Amino acid sequence: MKRFALIGMCAAALAAGIAGCNWETGNDATSWSSSYNWVNFSGTYRGVTGGLLVTDYTSTPSIPGVTNTIAIVGEGQGSFVANQTIFSGTLAHGNVVPGSLIVTLYNGAGGVVRTFADNALGVLGTGQGNVQYVSGSWNLDLTTEFPTVAGYVRASYSYTVSNSGSAGSEAESGATRVSIYSFTVSHNGQHLTLVDNNGASFAGYISQIRSTSGAENTDIGQVANDEQSQRAKITYYESELPADGDSIIANFECSGTSAAYIPVKIVGTLEGTVAAGVFTGRTMNGTWIEVGGKTGDINATTDPIVIVTSAAAEGTPAGDGQAQ
Prior knowledge:
Mean pLDDT: 74
Radius of gyration: 27 Å
Strand content: 35-45%
């Protein structure tokens, strides 16, 4: 059995003076605790609608055919140098509402240098530039009235999002310049790694696993003392799952850099349900938080996982509901 194999390995290591089997609990990269292997949340999670997994909070009309108008204030559009004459940029969102765009040039101290408003016919200012409403691209030509100082450009505008009723069409990405459709989750002890479909990786930890009936990871007798003493025992544990119908929830936090090279923190919960002695119906819900302010909503699900019991491994009938 795995239990005895690991006991033997750790005992031999201790006899040789090796501390490799004496893990400390906690959240740092070198700690590990068996209590967080009560259940396993590993798997590939995909958006619940079959579309985006990370969606913009404000861009999900709930009724097919409905159009939402969303306002953006002070979106960055780059910088400029003194005496620059040609300016251009592309807004983060297309489908710009005609007459809503205002492009503002600021000096380095944050003072307004020039402002150019859209006249609802695609013209900026009094003819200094243009905006393409569908793509969100814009340009300015200030050959005769260029700024004499360096600074930066900001844009404020509104855009529309429509729900055609087809799967995945009702939302925009909640991540900057990337679309995230899946997370491949690796769960080992309290450690958690998420890798998205763009190859970006986010590492973190589970802070607690509990069930709705009140059971927690520290309630497992074999590891409860480990949590209190900050030491992991030199054993392999097998614990029964809660009763059918009970839900098990894990709080987690991960961080990393998106495929658009933006630092990101992901905070949320992983949840699954016990049915016929199997941990299934696993979902991920959380918040995508970018440095710089953009925030997205995470809603995902994955395929069921079958619990292999120690009894089944030894050739006896399964069904005791134990988690391995």
